[in-house]
Write a structure and sequence with these properties.
The complex is a heterodimer of chains A (449) and B (140). Chain A is of the alpha+beta class. Chain A has 15 helices and 23 strands. In chain A, the strands form six sheets. In chain A, strands 14-13-10-11-12-15-22-20 form an eight-stranded antiparallel β-sheet, with helices on both faces. In chain B, the strands form three sheets. Chain B has a four-stranded antiparallel β-sheet with strand order 3-10-8-5. In chain B, strands 7-6-4-9 form a four-stranded antiparallel β-sheet, with no helix packed on it. Chain B has a two-stranded antiparallel sheet with strand order 1-2. Classes of the chains: A alpha+beta (449), B mainly beta (140).
Chain lengths: 449, 140
């Protein structure tokens, strides 16, 4: 087993990892920025090192200081959490160069999955369904041929893209030329790379992802799926649940099967998540996250497995010690993200000093948070303050439990997403379990309208 | 709340914390005795009391003496040089008081101006983190 782990993160996930270390009887070293000096993960870890000032590039992305902190404190591993350096293949390599075990998959896997085009190709090779589409399209003529073959409606996307720039939906052949030229010009202006490719447009998809665990001896299991379709207009997740409601057994089985197949194909190890778009019974691979996810607790609740401890055990070289047959989900779990955001003002992030903070409790409620009454919310970081997780035997009971938990929640001093989550939970659409990634944007549009 | 520091239970870490506390007091000498250990901290003269940051020290024109607090700007192991700094020593500008070793790279800790070394807040061989106060120099 590893002896001492440096936690290269902050906030609730840093605390989550420190807790896992403590329960496993191994040492933990926190890092913090000057803005996080009073943070809970700093107080709870066995040791703590300040690695820089508040802004992220100078602290939580300060690789030399982070590696040096691990070495001078005698760590033998680094857990990256999520965000920051978690999917940075070069960082994983640097850890290895200094004799530190990176708690995650091998650097070459991180790199392959980090590039969308490569990930899609590798998954297709493994037999995983990917969105029908093309490589780079050099001319309008090639785009026209491709669209006929893929079938309208199609989506033109910038290969260097992000944030919707260089992206166009094309419904009809007569709109293609204009869309192609527009996407190319916008991509060139935004990324200095005008290359675009095409994908089939999946209408009103759901975002469904599958949790996997793989040891370093070739054993791979899945831990079911999560539905993460309640997303803000920026595509950031707000509410997640395990399992996915209203998913046919056929689609569910296919998702699980593809996830395990993909991991075996690439020789994956540690925890990971394959994200899919789903429409009806069809599922298409979108991307793989080679790290622990924010929403991992809903899976932990229904499978009774501590994923962070499993990550550490796997990185220690231990075999999983169980197979797929040993895993059976039980009950239903929902997570709501309590973010310091003004949901009435386009989810604008909030910073400042918190007043009173009171979190709910009682049966079936789990709170993963780093905040407390009077804590500061620095302006430099992600706005997530807490995750409220409700677990019950049925989805209906889990919703009722979550509603009463959110009503008990008090976070004074900043606007939060608590009310927004309650509003979503109260809708007929959410309660029926029939919703897609357009659900929350439509709800917000109606409210404005 | 006081920040957590590495090896909280080590005597050297406790000495460091006491030293950081000490420089903010109006005391010239402080002695603490506990069950099986004792700490004695002393300085040759009194620096302005209050915020210990360099900016604060520079920004107080009414203060009789200007004080520099030299802090670690990298994480690593602190090493005193061959000419170990001594309390009360007159230091020249750019005098290397120590170096921080990190990832095989040595980063010098130098006096920003000439003056007198009025506090040594660190120990040779200690692990230091970003922003850790190392030396106090009363500018001459």
């Amino acid at each position: 087993m590893l002896r001492k782990v440096l936690v290269a993160n902050r906030g609730e996930i840093a605390l989550r990892i420190v807790r896992a270390c403590r329960e496993l009887g191994i040492g933990s070293v926190a890092i913090f920025s000057e803005a996080d000096r009073e943070s809970t993960h700093v107080r709870v870890a066995d040791e703590a090192f300040c690695v820089g000032p508040g802004p992220v590039p100078r602290s939580y992305l300060n690789v030399p200081n982070i590696i040096s902190a691990a070495l001078v404190s005698g760590c033998d591993a680094i857990h990256p959490g999520y965000g920051f350096l978690a999917e940075n293949a070069r960082f994983a390599e640097i850890c290895a160069d200094h004799g530190l075990k990176f708690i995650g998959p091998r650097p070459e896997i991180i790199m392959a999955m980090g590039d969308k085009a490569t990930a899609k190709r590798v998954m297709a090779e493994a037999g995983v369904a990917t969105t029908p589409g093309t490589d780079i399209l050099a001319t309008v003529e090639l785009a026209r041929e491709a669209a006929e073959s893929v079938g309208y409606p199609v989506l033109l996307k910038a290969t260097a893209g992000g944030g919707g720039k260089g992206m166009r939906v094309v419904e009809r052949p007569e709109d293609l030329e204009r869309a192609f030229l527009g996407a190319t010009a916008e991509a060139e202006a935004s990324f200095k790379d005008g290359r675009v490719y095409m994908e089939k447009l999946i209408r009103d998809p759901r975002h469904i992802e599958v949790q996997v665990l793989a040891d370093e001896h070739g054993e791979v299991v899945h831990l079911g799926e999560r539905d993460c379709s309640i997303q803000k207009p920026s595509h950031q997740k707000l509410i997640e649940e395990a399992g996915a409601p209203n998913l046919s057994e056929r689609a569910r089985a296919r998702l699980h099967e593809m996830a395990v197949l993909a991991c075996r194909h690439v020789g994956y190890s540690n925890a990971g998540t394959l994200e899919f778009l789903s429409s009806g019974d069809e599922v298409f691979f979108m991307e793989m996250n080679t790290r622990i996810q924010v929403e991992h607790p809903v899976t932990e609740m229904v499978y009774g497995i501590d994923l962070v401890k499993e990550q550490i055990r796997i990185a220690s070289g231990e075999p999983l010690g169980y197979t797929q047959r040993d895993l059976e989900p039980r009950g239903h779990a929902i997570e709501c993200r309590i973010n310091a955001e003004d949901a009435r003002n386009n989810f604008a992030p909030q910073a400042g000093k918190l007043g009173a903070v009171i979190f709910p409790g009682g049966p079936g409620i789990r709170i993963d948070t780093h905040i407390f009454s009077g804590a500061s919310v620095p302006p430099y970081y992600d706005s997530m303050l807490a995750k409220v997780i409700a677990f019950a035997n049925t989805r209906e009971q889990a919703i009722a439990r979550m509603e009463r938990a959110l009503r008990e929640t008090l976070v004074e001093g900043v606007a939060t997403t608590t009310e927004m989550c309650l509003e979503v939970l109260g809708t007929e659409g959410y309660r029926s379990g029939v919703y897609d990634i357009g659900f929350l944007p439509r709800l917000l549009a109606q409210r404005v309208g | 709340m006081t920040p957590e520091h590495p090896s909280e239970d080590e005597p050297s870490a406790r000495a460091q914390r006491l030293a950081e506390f000490f420089v903010n007091t109006p005391l010239l000498r402080m002695r603490i005795e506990r069950e099986d250990e004792e700490f004695e901290l002393a300085r040759s003269s009194l620096a302005p009391v209050g915020r210990t940051s360099e900016a604060a020290a520079v920004a107080e024109p009414s203060a009789k003496r200007a004080v520099d607090i030299l802090r670690a700007d990298v994480v690593g192991i602190l090493r005193f040089g061959r000419s170990e700094p001594t309390l009360g020593e007159e230091v020249a500008e750019e005098r290397e008081l120590a170096a921080i070793e990190a990832l095989g790279i040595r980063t010098s800790v130098r006096a920003r101006s000439a003056g007198r070394l009025t506090a040594i807040l660190c120990q040779d061989g200690a692990a230091v983190d970003y922003g850790r106060a190392l030396f106090e120099i009363e500018r001459g």
